Amino acid sequence: MADEHTLAHLFRAQPQAVGRSPNEAWSPQRFRLSPAPLARILDEGDMIETGDRSFHVIHLPGHSPGSIGLLDERNGDLLAGDAIYRGRLIDDLPGSDALAYRQTMQRLLQIEFSRAFCGHGETIDQIELRAIARTYLDSAG
């Protein structure tokens, strides 16, 4: 995958982005990720069945275009990805959309769940997620 389709170039420019090399021959300049083959494009409301779990696809754009979350209503789990996490929510990356991010925060205030697995940091509960969303909406508004 070409760097222009990722943010890899930003991480290569930050020596602290990788704490230590996985082996002596590893080089961040030569590192490449091979994309998994596309099986299908997911859309709002689609279901993903894993055998023992079912996830509803929820469109959560703003941080990055096309971001999704996965909601397991039976277990109360929300896989939120980079849509929300502790700390300053980033809405100024290439491809970010602050207006769409505000709509995502509004949406997250309405979703019922027990715990959210975020793309960064620890698992959070619904109360903390809603506090983060409200803080973003208050500061961005």
From TrEMBL:
It holds the Pfam family Lactamase_B. InterPro entries: Metallo-B-lactamas, NDM-1-like, RibonucZ/Hydroxyglut_hydro. SUPFAM superfamilies: Metallo-hydrolase/oxidoreductase. Residues 30-120 form the Metallo-beta-lactamase domain. Belongs to the metallo-beta-lactamase superfamily. Class-B beta-lactamase family. This is MBL fold metallo-hydrolase. It comes from Mesorhizobium calcicola.
